[in-house]
């Protein structure tokens, strides 16, 4: 199976988690795109979705699912999203698609986070995938210097602006041994909007597309 076929398979496996839920949270990325495509067949059961990006919003609207403002709907029962890396503790690195801030907000406001990944995303230690950090534009260089002090090599994601009009630094060469600690440390750097470590609010369920099966962790 190709990686995309694995993404498709795991996306399909997430559909039962959102049947009869009402309003769902929807993440961003190629795996989630497949998930949204599957939702088309069940849209009558779905009252609406809170979306983590402009891209996902467009896709949801295209299949006729109303996109709602998180402020208007309160907490959500279920949030479905992909990840760039996930460890055995269900901690994740996210933000390869640049939507990390809204993703973290929806994850925080959801009772259950269902993470959907293909097997290539499973790691023992987070950090091989460059860690995305969303920053206020004027703070970019300052934050980069602080990240160097932590042992990383930040690279500016040039010609990229987030949905929140901010910039992203992708931090290479970090071995994230203590994800919750590093999440707190990077969160506390002035000028950081969001760090792509999702450990303080980890996933509740991880669905992994592996060969012909989908493993539930
Ligand atoms: C976007 C994300 C995505 O979940 C992550 O990048 C995985 O993407 P894909 O499903 O395309 O592999 O965090 O900000």
Describe this structure in words.
There is one protein chain. This protein is an alpha/beta fold and 217 residues long. Helix content is 29%, strand content 28%. It has helices at residues 3-13, 30-39, 54-62, 70-73, 100-108, 140-149, 179-187; strands at 22-26, 46-51, 76-81, 85-86, 92-93, 110-118, 131-135, 153-156, 167-172, 192-195, 197-198, 205-210, 213-216. Helix 1 crosses helix 2 (30-39). The model has no long low-confidence stretch (mean pLDDT 97). The structure holds ribulose-5-phosphate. Ribulose-5-phosphate (5RP) is lined by residues 27-31, 81-84, 94-100, 103. The site of ribulose-5-phosphate (5RP) has 17 residues, from helix 2 and helix 5.
Task: Summarize this entry quickly.
With 217 residues, this protein is of the alpha/beta class. Helices cover 29% and strands 28% of the residues. It contains seven helices and 13 strands.
Mean pLDDT: 97
Write the H/E string, N to C: HEHEHHEEEHEEHEEHEEEE
Rg on CA atoms, Å: 17 Å
Please count the helical segments. 7
Q: What does the main sheet amount to?
A: 6 strands, mixed
Compute the separation of the termini in Å.
21 Å
Report the principal-axis shape. Answer: globular
What is the total tally of β strands? 13
């Amino acid at each position: 199976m190709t990686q995309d076929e694995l993404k498709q398979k795991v996306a399909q496996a997430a559909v039962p988690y959102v049947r009869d839920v009402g309003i769902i949270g929807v993440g961003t990325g190629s795996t989630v795109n497949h998930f949204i495509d599957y939702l088309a067949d069940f849209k009558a059961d779905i009252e609406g979705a809170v979306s983590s990006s402009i891209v996902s919003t467009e896709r949801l609207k295209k299949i006729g699912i109303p996109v709602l403002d998180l402020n208007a709907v309160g907490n959500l029962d279920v949030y479905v999203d992909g990840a760039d890396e996930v460890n055995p503790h269900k901690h994740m690195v996210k933000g390869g698609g640049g939507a990390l801030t809204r993703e973290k907000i929806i994850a925080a406001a959801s009772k259950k986070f269902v993470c959907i990944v293909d097997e290539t995303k499973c790691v023992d230690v987070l950090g091989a995938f460059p860690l995305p950090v969303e920053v206020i534009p004027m703070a970019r260089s300052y934050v980069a210097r602080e990240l160097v002090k932590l042992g990383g090599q930040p690279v500016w994601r040039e010609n990229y602006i987030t949905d929140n009009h901010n910039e992203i630094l992708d931090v290479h060469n970090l071995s994230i041994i203590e994800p919750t600690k590093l999440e707190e440390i990077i969160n506390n750097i002035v000028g950081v909007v969001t760090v792509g470590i999702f450990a303080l609010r980890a996933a509740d369920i991880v669905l992994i597309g592996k060969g012909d099966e989908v493993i539930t962790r």
